[in-house]
Specification:
The chain is α+β, with helices and mostly antiparallel strands and 492 residues long. It has helices at 2-15, 24-42, 48-66, 76-88, 91-94, 128-133, 139-142, 380-393, and strands at 145-152, 159-164, 171-176, 180-185, 192-198, 204-209, 215-220, 224-229, 234-240, 247-252, 259-264, 268-273, 278-286, 291-296, 302-307, 311-317, 324-331, 338-344, 355-360, 364-369, 400-406, 416-418, 429-432, 438-443, 451-456, 462-467, 473-478, 483-488. The strands form seven sheets. It has a four-stranded antiparallel sheet. It has a four-stranded antiparallel sheet with strand order 2-3-4-5, with no helix packed on it. The protein has a four-stranded antiparallel sheet with strand order 6-7-8-9, with no helix packed on it.
Amino acid sequence: MAAVWQQILAQDARYNAYRLPGSPQFRTQYIRRRSQLLRENAKVDHDPIIRKQYLKVRGQILGQRYGTSLSEQGSQRSRSASKCSSRLTLDREEGDFRGHRRYHSSGSGKFSLPSPTEDGLVPTRAAEASRAMVGDKTLDENYAFAGMHHIFDQHSEAVMAVKFANDDKARLACCSLDGTLSVCQVIPEPATVLCVLKGHTSGVTDFSWSLSNDVIVSCSLDGTVRLWQVPTGTCLRVVGDCDGAEIMSCAFQPVNNNMIVTGNKKGFVHVLNFSTGKYVKGGSSKASGSVLTTTFDSGGKTLWIGDENGCVYSFAFDVGTGKLSRAQRLVVCEGHPITCISARSWMSREARDPSLLINCGANALCLYSYPTRKPHPGSPLVNRLQEYASRVSGVEGSLQLKRKFPIKQRNLRIRSGFCPLMSFRQGACVVSGSEDMSVYFFDVERSNKPVVNKLQGHSAPVIDVSFNYDESLLASADSEGMVIVWKREQRS
């Protein structure tokens, strides 16, 4: 009956924001201690009926005490109703972001038989195999959560990034401004901290898993990049920034993991060969301000960076040499920092243009698309000219604003991400942290009321979020060092 205690903890976490609004440290200590006590009590055999009655009575008491409608009953049906009511309260928060044109269009009128698109693609509504992969559930059902799987509190300062290992649903890593990184195992229970990586002399701002998950690269305000061996926690190499600046972001080149890209506070982006420990000649460029985020497209040929002045840059990346060629500069939100960029090669079966998800410090999460070049039939010369133009520009199309979603972000480096399994169901979802201490899920194809779910449990702004590859667990990290691992609700 450990699941009941997880429901109790989730219930307490929802009300945690109402406890002593002027004392966030107390709220953090309360939920940590509550988690510890519940884990200890879960090991003791109790009557299951008494546990469920306790959950129900405590929900009623909390509802009366704080005068809110967040009270949860023990059944899955009432939890789903609570989620629906919480989503309805968000309608007013969407404000000016309503009315955007829906990108995905499945046509209008009645359909007697599903017909493929012009390029032979069967629509999602008729793709039986794809629907079977997600249990033929709606988007709202897929992002319903039963409660908290575990809470990690080993860090004493803000956790700046949290990431599950590639194609691994059990291992999780996070980095903190306390100068350390931690590698955790969340499955099987009980969740544990496998190792703590110590060596940086100042806050760790970003990190990245290698493709094989055996190495982690991290960067820090101490002006160094470190390469760590994950199984042992050994530091393999330390390289200082060639400008002597604080390093704000880093990323492995997805095709060639010998290459690492870093962005520093002076506005420079550099390519580092970690096999030699030297920076690549021709692998540097300059942005208008501090480089806060770096990411590659799935093929590793295009690098995207975002700076503190609201600009996004794209670069053509030579996989063999590591040289950069600047392609485009886009002002997303002038004067407001770009804190996160995520790239996705396609959004759903019907919307297959590559997309960028961008957090900017103007209370908005922006979704951009950049259409790919299509071959010209029967004209090899035109195709060669188009290929040359895309190679010179680094991208094959201009960025087009697709949607904006309202979140709370003004002062912190809030991050977001695409949900891994979105391409196998009707609709597509993204998830983001927020300064209002919540985790938001948005359906990018829903033109009205795009909020699919909202998770509340943190007592501080949520900085980063990360799904494991099968979406069974979601990790969220906040500015006070707490990492919550949420368990998705399983329905038969």
